[in-house]
Amino acid sequence: MLSDTYLPVALFAVLALAVPALVFWLSRYFRPLKVEDRQETTYECGEEPIGEAQIQFHFQYYMFAIIFVAFDLVSVFVILWALVFSDIGEIAKTMLIAFLMVLMVGVTYALKKEEILWI
């Protein structure tokens, strides 16, 4: 009885592992074997690349990306919290307020460290 219940799951797992392996193995028979000169060049929207490919970005851009991801995740949690605000207890509300305060302290510290907070 138990094998009847999990048989579709096992079949799906076998297919999920077999199909990518089969496609990877079959791809060697469909790819071109002759390498051309234009395949060795860097591709930039069909144009010849100009200048050096490796440039250095300022750390500031990474800091903005990290802060964006943090606020993106927090927005999901806050939206879910707001949907059930009337149903949760006082401890949950207090924990969420503490969570938001810790987040704001961290963001303020990160922005002050980069000296871009104009307060």
Keywords for this structure?
single chain, about 120 residues, mainly alpha, 2 domains, 3 helices, about 65% helix, flat
Describe this structure in words.
The chain has about 120 residues and is mainly α. The protein folds into two domains: about 1-40; about 60-115. Helix content is about 65%, strand content about 0%. It contains three helices and no strands. It has helices at about 1-30, 60-85, 90-115. Helix 2 runs antiparallel to helix 3. The termini are far apart.
Please summarize what this structure is.
Helices cover 66% and strands 0% of the residues. It has 119 residues and is mainly α.
SSE string: HHH
Number of domains: 2
Total number of β-strand segments? 0
Main beta sheet: strand number and arrangement? none
The amount of helix comes to 55-70%
- Span of the ends, CA to CA: 68 Å
| Poorly predicted parts | none
